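[job 4471] stage=fold_predict status=RUNNING
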Amino acid sequence: MTAYDPLCPPCLADPPARDDDIPWHANRAGLILDLDGTLIREHQPIEGAAALLDAYRGRFVIVSNNSTHTARQLARRLCAMGLPVRARDLVLAGEQMVQYLCASHAGARVLMRASPALQRQAATRGCRLVARDADVVALALDKAFDYAALAAVAHEVARGARLVVSNIDLSHPGPDGRIVPETGALLRAVQGCTGVPPWHVVGKPEPAMFREGLRRLGGTAAATLVVGDNPDTDAAGAVRAGLQYVLVGSSPLAAAATPAQLLASDCAARSRLA
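[job 4471] inference complete, writing structure tokens
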């Protein structure tokens, strides 16, 4: 890309090389979309989110650090908001953590601090969940996390259990500018007690979830764009996965404030190229 594209701002690191000068609007076959802060703020869709999903129907996947819901739960919730999303369109950090535990720690004793839905899913898939003497501590967004939970997790980690974390976000944006605490805030508390870093982080900015999103799209990196709002997770993770990205929201690197503005710019660019 030889000229600055307002919908493809400078990356946190060198962006993936392009072998042509065609702007992304002309050949972008699919989108990998963030959720919180990009399409919704808690229970409210962001302006233009439904239109963006409709414009890319069948050509998008949502890759989210959500570690509370299963894909089926979240798809129902999003559909109730007017966002046409299927369970198979969702790659979620919580579910990916369960998959990682089953694949990489089969038979291990797992102390899991997570939502009831994720705990049920883990148990159904064969994870051996325990309350003490764990081989692995799995930490996701647990809204029931309290002092007793912190003490139990810190003890297991300090005695040598491997700490697996769904995601490291400290927060995500809620309605009216409210801050919604995330898994990373719980992780900070555990690390404050133990000084032990995570053994494995599942979610963004790690590239594995982006690669899973690309696999589900069945596309190529060159024809896929990541749309998110967080430079530290969406942008940095896209670069690590070899993908180009565009940011929306209030970040200094954001190309548009809302999906509506991004889609309007996309449509205008396509009209110019037609």
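[job 4471] summary: Residues 24-65+204-273 form a domain with the Rossmann fold fold (CATH 3.40.50.1000).
[job 4471] exit 0
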